[in-house]
Fold this protein.
Amino acid sequence: MNYSDKQLNEIKEFLYKIADDQLIIGHRNSEWTGLGPLVEEDIAFSSIAQDKIGQSQHIYEILHTLGEADADTIAFTRPAAEFNCSHLTEYPIGEYDFSLMRNFLFNHAEQIRFEMLSESSFEPLANLAKKYRGEIKYHTMHSDTWINQLGRANDESNTRMQKALNETFNLALGIFEESGNEESLKKMNIFAGENILQEKWIESVTPRIKAANLILPDKSNWKPVYGGRKGNHTEYLEPLLNEMGEVFRLDPRAEW
Amino acid sequence: MRFNTLVNIEKETITKDDIVEALEDVMDPEIPTISVVDLGIIRKVEIDDENNVKVLMTPTFSGCPALKIMENMVRDKIKELNVKSVEITTNFDTQWNSNMITENGLEGLKKHGLAPPPRHNDIVQIEMISKAACPLCGSSNTILKSPFGPTLCRSLHYCNDCLNAFEQFKPVG
């Protein structure tokens, strides 16, 4: 299919936000390497990081075929304002409950997004989506299991998980911030839209939150944290980028 | 010497089958009892009249760090044959799933002490991964310890009968 320059830019913006979310939350997950409360959790967070960063890389490679810089340059040299990730992904790892709840909310959105994209008219992305949805199933399996166990274990764990949910929920709603290209992407049959994704996401997380004896924040208190998709970020993104790209920038032409 | 030369001339017609056969000796660097062919990641092999070879590969997991190594191993192996050039492409046009592992490949996984992934109908359910048969004693009285193991493709399990920890090559849809 031939796209106009305008359409191409809309597709690029869409790809950037998906891949940036994966790269940044992947990096945050990797920060648990060596710090997990159990060795299995250490491995789980590290593996999830490896998956998500690997997945972002292949989306950056599609962007490269559309005329953008190569994947490493895209990942390691852009300033914060050129990233389109949601604020949810940027926050420091905090306590284990925070990181788990963040993953739970993010993984379900990601799982549904790639289910939707597996039917996208943009074939390179549809092919990746068909692959990713199978991998992400293991991520949702991981976070679902722990949310359920810790939500129901005892008063302390329940209180901590509820607090984590309250802290992350409005941030998670920021995943679905619209960029203004939704109508056009829908017309091209590339993506059905952030609104539909958010509806499906609520349907997916609600029964799991209930089953874990946790309470979904009341709709009257939903205050989505927007800005990330437009390049406005938290104070936490820049230090993360500095650390992540530090080695690459020592010698951008080095062969790895 | 002359005889050898004649043999070489005859051998110049290298077929696709010769290449696939050679690749059956290229083992997964992380699981040395299964070849890249049995793993199902070699999706297409083409050879033209001038012995230019093209191979299409696809990764098991998109974050698999062994992919570049395997591409190089495949390239080096084919270069040992009398070919003019080797071109390796890796893409996701076909998406790998664990059903692409051959029967021979499943045996290879067992030899490495791994429970092979159960066959599935494109949809992998949690029950499939949580009920792995122990590769050491065959018991199905096992529990899933973690869906993530030492590599992306393996999960951690424990056998309640023979009291051994073991790993499963994960089913992937």
Residues 123-153 of chain A form the longest helix (31 residues). Chain A is about 70% helix and 0% strand. The domain at 5-250 of chain A is CATH 1.20.1260.10 (Ferritin).
